[in-house]
Design brief:
754 residues, alpha/beta, Rossmann fold, six-stranded mixed sheet, six-stranded parallel sheet
Length: 754
């Protein structure tokens, strides 16, 4: 909290700003202060556009055409919030390493303020991160207040985008004309040098609400009132420019329409608690965004906590009241028309906003998640990327290792990195012979390893059944669980065969997706270097302990997926563990994000109960698919519009019975639909060890062991589509309800159709 000898009301300090804003609003309604607008204004060419493709020609583009494009890009523009960008991406590779979180830099520098750090690069990276995290708190809070209502939220919008020339990532080129919106190109500094930190436009009854918020994130929790006032004064002046620039790009708004604009400006200080006695309604403090805010140890930890808390804070509370958005009314037609004009001016002119469309945001999110994966997989920086301490680093390099950890913590890429490291170390391993064994039936995981090591003669990649056949190992059963093979005995036999059949070599056994069955203390590796990755979930509840000559390395940082997906999965895992037969071989609650990518909320569709008795659906083809095809098709079409390639979407079928029939039915249906025919349809066994950019999990929610495996195989977007079987502990239906209550997920738009 800011220090203060005496309570002070900062509203007295910002009276000049209030007076200037009142004057700007009055001028907007004065005909003598507004520009003359030509009658053909909306049809005048503003720029030229050439779409991607070798045979495309330059075409002119006008305000009227921008309005058409806006309504095409956002068909729900008059019903739901348009947020640009649609999500938060504040992980900048050039300013901070992908596998370093801002919190990691805080710990490294003993939680001191960054002004005391010695490394200037780290200081600059950290300052950039907590600044953008502060903006993220405000963005998520504003989205929550207007979600489900028409509105436009612009975050980090630079007015120079209205005059941008060049080619975007989709291959479309834009070329500005000599004049734009009535004033000279690149000569109006008031416009081109202005940036909306946050701009909210909301139709409300007979008025159009305009909110301009400038965000200033102060690192020091004990910031002086002088510093707060300094930041607030600068930010208040920026909001004046916000409204002035708005008027400049909307010369066609009449004085009568201007009288329908209700303008409010704010300074947001998302890392600073409200000082005693400050009743200024133009300044939003940390406790305005999170009334239950506590001290988490540093500014970035506080901000991260406040971002995640937004999903648990209901809309319409004190923040909405302060913003004047707590009682939004259905808009009249003339206000909707005015809102359409404003929205098209911002997001309809050519490619004005780099992140205006959901698929553009999702593409960038996937690119950064892929970059994280590649950084973690680099064997030259393995210890640094996984944040291993000295002891853990030594364990990783001993090549006598059992790997355990939460889904997505980097077990598979660690195996790959250790293989590459062994191949590169000719001094330690002069004649390597490496057998990589893939458990279960994951063809895709097998292909991944084969592709990565296809040029390495010293490496052989096999499924476990083929490896056993090659080395003459009979299937070994596990005592009281006779229908399950004993991986401990199988691994021991493979190690023995490798050591005897390949003498004179540095022999390695690398195994992935090994089920946690049997007593791993009995594992015998002989002279073989063994690195074994054990799947997190099991029915038998085995606690993984290593034999005397091996070590257990538990990975706890989740790299595969986003914060929000991880939050849902952590809740689900805890609920699954409550089941009498459901166990995990890791320390639940220790998993933590390995990056700073927040991502999108998990979406849930919970179907009505079917007539089947027992603990699962006996006819999922009919009850999960055929009876719900119309709803499912709406969901697929909506999600398809948010990705660039249908192949980014995987439908994961996880039913207790007739899974193969469900897969065949779904493939036949999708195969007849253009645009959806490339959607991947997989079963549990096929996709084990792999991951999808966008995963639609479909099942009856009863097969706990496979649920743990299947719905965790996702990086960027997770959608749960489930029949509500809840007769067993840990069933998916109750988990989805609890997640939505706790803000770990939200009901999908299609839930309204159920």
């Amino acid at each position: 909290m800011a220090s203060s000898a005496q309570p002070v009301d900062l509203s007295l300090m910002l009276q000049g700003h209030v007076s200037r804003m009142d004057e700007l609003v009055r001028d907007s309604r004065d005909p003598s202060k507004r520009p003359t607008v030509p009658s053909d204004f909306k049809n005048r060419p503003l720029c030229k556009i050439k779409k991607s493709g070798s045979n495309q020609q330059w075409t002119t583009y006008s305000v009227a055409e921008a309005e058409v494009r806006m309504t095409t890009d956002f068909p729900q523009w008059d019903q739901d919030l348009i947020s640009c960008p649609p999500g938060i991406l504040y992980n900048k590779e050039k300013t901070i390493k992908l596998y370093d979180r801002a919190r990691d830099l805080v710990v490294k520098n003993n939680r001191q303020l960054s002004s005391r750090w010695r490394d200037k690069h780290e200081k600059n990276s950290y300052t950039n991160r907590f600044g953008t995290m502060g903006e993220a708190v405000v963005q998520v809070a504003l989205e929550k207040e207007v979600q489900g209502k028409p509105g436009l939220l612009l975050c980090g919008f630079r007015f120079g985008l209205l005059n941008r020339a060049g080619k975007d990532k989709d291959g479309q080129e834009t070329k500005p004309q000599n004049t734009t919106l009535g004033f000279p190109v690149k000569k109006n500094a008031l416009v081109w040098d202005t940036e909306h930190d946050m701009s909210m436009t909301v139709p409300d009854g007979n008025f159009l609400e305009l909110r301009y918020i400038q965000v200033k994130t102060i690192e020091d929790p004990n910031a002086s009132l002088d510093l707060i006032l300094e930041k607030a004064t600068v930010a208040a002046k920026q909001t004046e420019r916000d409204f002035s620039a708005f008027l400049a790009i909307h010369p066609d708004i009449s004085t009568q329409q201007a009288a329908k604009l209700r303008v409010r400006t704010y300074v947001a200080l998302p890392a600073t608690m409200r000082p005693p006695g400050d009743n200024n309604h133009n300044i939003l403090y940390r406790d305005d965004f999170n009334p239950q805010a506590g001290d988490e140890g540093s500014v970035v930890e506080n901000l991260h906590s406040d971002i995640m808390a937004q999903s648990k804070i209901p809309p319409g509370g004190s923040l909405a009241v302060k913003l004047g958005l707590d009682k939004i009314q259905p808009a009249s037609q003339d206000i909707l028309d005015l809102y359409k004009t404003v929205t098209a001016r911002y997001v309809g002119l050519g490619s004005i906003h780099p992140m205006k469309e959901h698929r553009t945001f999702f593409r960038e999110l996937l690119r950064r998640l892929q970059a994280v994966d590649e950084a973690v997989a680099d064997h030259t920086t393995l210890e640094e990327a996984l944040h291993l301490d000295t002891r853990q680093a030594a364990v990783a390099n001993c090549y006598k290792l059992l790997l355990i950890g939460f889904y997505g913590t980097g077990k598979t890429v660690t195996l790959e990195a250790l293989v590459w490291r062994a191949l590169a170390d000719s001094t330690r391993f002069p004649n390597p012979n490496i057998l990589i064994v893939i458990w279960e039936d994951s063809e895709d995981l097998l292909k991944r390893f084969q592709e990565h090591f296809k040029d390495e003669a010293a490496v052989k990649v096999m499924a476990v059944n083929k490896a056993c056949k090659k080395y003459g190992i009979k299937e070994v059963k596990l005592g009281t669980d006779g229908d399950k093979e004993n991986p401990v005995l199988t691994l021991s036999a493979l190690c023995s065969s490798l050591s005897t059949s390949q003498p004179g070599h540095s022999n390695f056994l690398v195994a992935d997706e090994v089920p946690a069955r049997g007593d791993f203390r009995q594992l015998q590796t002989a002279t073989v270097h063994a690195v074994i990755s054990i799947a997190p979930a099991t029915y038998s509840g085995v606690t993984v302990e290593a034999p005397a000559d091996m070590e257990v390395l538990e990975l706890t940082r989740v790299y595969r997926t986003t914060h929000r997906i991880q939050g849902f999965l952590s809740l689900a895992m805890a609920e699954w563990k409550k089941g009498s037969s459901n166990h995990v071989n890791m320390s639940l609650g220790q998993e933590t994000p390995g990056h700073d990518l927040l991502g999108e909320e998990v979406e849930c569709v919970l179907l009505p109960e079917c007539a089947c008795s027992g603990y699962w659906c006996h006819d999922p083809v009919q009850h999960l698919l055929e009876d719900r095809w119309s709803l499912l098709l709406n969901l697929l079409n909506r999600l398809r519009g948010q990705v660039e390639e249908a192949g980014h979407i995987t439908v994961m079928l996880d039913t207790w019975v007739k899974t193969a029939e469900c897969k065949d039915w779904m493939i036949r249906k999708l195969g007849t639909l253009q645009g959806l025919d490339e959607v991947r349809v997989k079963t549990v066994e096929q996709w084990r060890g792999m991951e999808s950019e966008m995963l639609i999990w479909m099942g009856d929610g009863s097969n706990y062991s496979s649920m743990m495996d299947t719905c965790t195989r996702v990086t960027g977007r997770l959608v749960m589509f489930c029949l509500p079987f809840s007769r067993g502990s840990g069933a998916m239906g109750p988990i989805m309800k609890k997640a939505c209550r706790q803000g770990r997920a939200r009901w999908a738009l299609e839930q309204q159709e159920v």
